[in-house]
């Protein structure tokens, strides 16, 4: 371990500072498709009993009417986050009738593209903008790509931690806001160096239905009449089969400082892209995309991790980052765990907390162009052949096996886990880390290997495996319906969201064309697209 890392660990381990480790916030966003009992995509509208997708803060939709997204409130402890995620699932299942939630990141059997329903958010200007944005995604990437689901993990350190670290570093020449932003950007650099490890440990999509890649070229192998796979893959979701874009191919925001990141995204949301110009913004008098730029909005940029800031009314995300700096980070590369009813386990959350604390505290030199290429190639290897025996990655230009590098990283991360456990006076983070060490020593324990083993044991296609898991999870949630208090809480939230959407629709002024022009001029209200 570097002196830099051990010094910072010791600083936060001091009695007067240790309590700050419990003050950061965590949150989970879980995406999941609604499916029918036969495992095919549910084409029904978003259930009204869940509320209005436009204004319900915890239960909404992502791309499709059929793609639910559950958003937990931020909490200091991931255990509380998991309890709230579980409560959301139990309430939703109580409203779904015979529909279920798909247990996997890779989609169920999908209908023809034109039948996949795009998310609908009502007739308000903001609702229509969200819908038109999704029409643009369909044109740019295809609807099937938008049906892939994942887990997003939101993470922040207590702001006072950054003050403590700044004082220790003697950085009196910059503001605490700048120091904090620099700290999160440094975290992101380390994350991009080491996130291949997360793919090995938690990747859970080594196979998919042939139906998903209809009409697309690929290099996958045939597992059975209905399933494609790669024998050593960990996460095909995060491979080049997933959310890819030629327009974004040359969009490589630098993470060496916040300003360069903001400028890169600002250019992408304002620079037109000729193939999108050829499509235009209207067809037969209807909007089909918000604009013809490389990105319609900032969130269209697909990344494994993002710096984030809660936005105020009238702000775009990059404006909020520019004005007030980075507030938290969003990890976006985690697969749905098909063996976990909520898609993620508490142990995974504990490990992520230790991993991200390590990324925040360890030395994080600026990334060169050569290292950036190395990071991308290491990640690509891990997702497509991470369990291959003896697989080698590149570390500073030299070959190193994934296993030996992974074990070395766990040794460093264990110091962060120990610090977190000392604050809690238990061993949960250390225990979670030990689970991951066993996966590095025994690849058959990884979720990706377990998926393939389960399919082989039951002689199942990918779709049959995922449907079996979905039915098991549905039975578990239905056996534990929401309490009276939980049901009242979510029912009231749903009713309020419907009222809020109606209020927006009734009180808006002007026409949609003017509204879109205002959005382009960054005068949109506080609702994200």
Automatic annotation (TrEMBL):
GO terms for cellular component: cytosol. The keyword Oxidoreductase does not apply. One of its GO terms (molecular function) is ATP binding. Pfam families: Glu_cys_ligase. InterPro entries: Gln_synth/guanido_kin_cat_dom, Glu_cys_ligase, Glut_cys_ligase. The keyword Cytoplasm does not apply. It catalyses: L-cysteine + L-glutamate + ATP = gamma-L-glutamyl-L-cysteine + ADP + phosphate + H(+). Pathway: Sulfur metabolism; glutathione biosynthesis; glutathione from L-cysteine and L-glutamate: step 1/2. GO terms for biological process: glutathione biosynthetic process. Residues 10-380 form the Glutamate--cysteine ligase domain. It is an enzyme of class 6 (ligase). Its EC number is 6.3.2.2. Keywords: ATP-binding, Glutathione biosynthesis, Ligase, Nucleotide-binding. It comes from the Bacteria. NCBIfam families: glu_cys_ligase (TIGR01434). Belongs to the glutamate--cysteine ligase type 1 family. Type 1 subfamily. This is Glutamate--cysteine ligase. It comes from Glaciimonas immobilis.
């Amino acid at each position: 371990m570097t002196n830099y890392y051990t010094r910072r660990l010791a600083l936060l381990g001091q009695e007067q500072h240790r309590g700050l480790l419990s003050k950061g916030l965590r949150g989970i966003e879980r995406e999941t498709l609604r499916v029918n009992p036969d495992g095919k995509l549910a084409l029904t509208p978003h259930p009204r009993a869940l509320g209005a997708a436009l204004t319900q803060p915890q239960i909404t939709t992502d791309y499709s009417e059929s793609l639910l997204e559950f958003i937990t409130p931020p909490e200091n402890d991931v255990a509380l986050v998991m309890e709230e995620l579980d409560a959301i699932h139990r309430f939703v299942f109580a409203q779904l009738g015979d529909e279920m939630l798909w247990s996997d990141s890779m989609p169920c059997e999908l209908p023809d593209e034109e039948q996949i329903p795009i998310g609908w958010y009502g007739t308000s200007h903001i609702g229509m903008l969200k819908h038109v944005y999704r029409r643009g995604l369909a044109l740019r990437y295809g609807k099937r790509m938008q049906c892939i689901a994942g887990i997003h993990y939101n993470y922040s350190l207590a702001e006072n931690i950054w003050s403590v670290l700044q004082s220790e570093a003697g950085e009196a020449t910059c503001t605490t806001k700048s120091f904090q932003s620099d700290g999160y950007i440094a975290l992101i650099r380390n994350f991009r160096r080491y996130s291949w490890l997360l793919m090995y440990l938690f990747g859970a999509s080594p196979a998919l239905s042939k139906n998903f890649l209809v009409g697309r070229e690929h290099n996958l192998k045939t597992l059975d009449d209905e399933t494609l796979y790669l024998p050593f893959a960990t996460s095909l979701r995060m491979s080049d089969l997933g959310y890819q874009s030629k327009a974004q191919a040359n969009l490589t925001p630098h993470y060496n400082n916040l300003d360069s990141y903001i400028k890169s995204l600002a250019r992408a949301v304002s620079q037109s892209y000729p193939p999108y110009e050829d499509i235009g913004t209207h067809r037969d008098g209807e909007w089909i995309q918000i604009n013809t730029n490389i990105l319609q909005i900032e969130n269209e940029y697909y990344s494994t991790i993002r710096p984030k800031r809660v936005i105020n009314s009238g702000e775009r995300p990059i404006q909020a980052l520019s004005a007030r700096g980075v507030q938290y980070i969003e990890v976006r590369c985690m697969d749905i765990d098909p063996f976990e009813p909520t898609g993620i386990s508490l142990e995974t959350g504990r490990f992520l907390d230790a991993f991200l604390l390590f990324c925040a505290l360890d030395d994080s030199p600026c990334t060169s162009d050569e290292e950036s290429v190395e990071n991308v190639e290491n990640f690509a290897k891990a997702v497509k052949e991470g369990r291959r025996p003896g697989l080698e990655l590149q570390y500073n230009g030299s070959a190193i096996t994934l296993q030996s590098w992974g074990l070395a990283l766990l040794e460093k991360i264990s110091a962060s886990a120990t610090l977190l456990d000392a604050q809690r006076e238990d061993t949960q983070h250390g225990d979670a880390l030990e689970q991951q060490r066993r996966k590095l020593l025994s690849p058959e324990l990884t979720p990706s290997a377990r998926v393939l083993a389960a399919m082989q044991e039951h002689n199942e296609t990918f779709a049959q495996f995922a449907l079996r898991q979905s039915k098991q999870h549905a039975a578990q949630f239905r056996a534990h319906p929401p309490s009276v208090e939980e049901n009242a809480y979510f029912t009231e939230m749903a009713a309020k969201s419907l009222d809020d959407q109606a209020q927006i629709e009734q009180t808006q002024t002007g026409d949609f064309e003017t509204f879109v022009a205002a959005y382009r001029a960054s005068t949109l209200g506080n609702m994200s697209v």
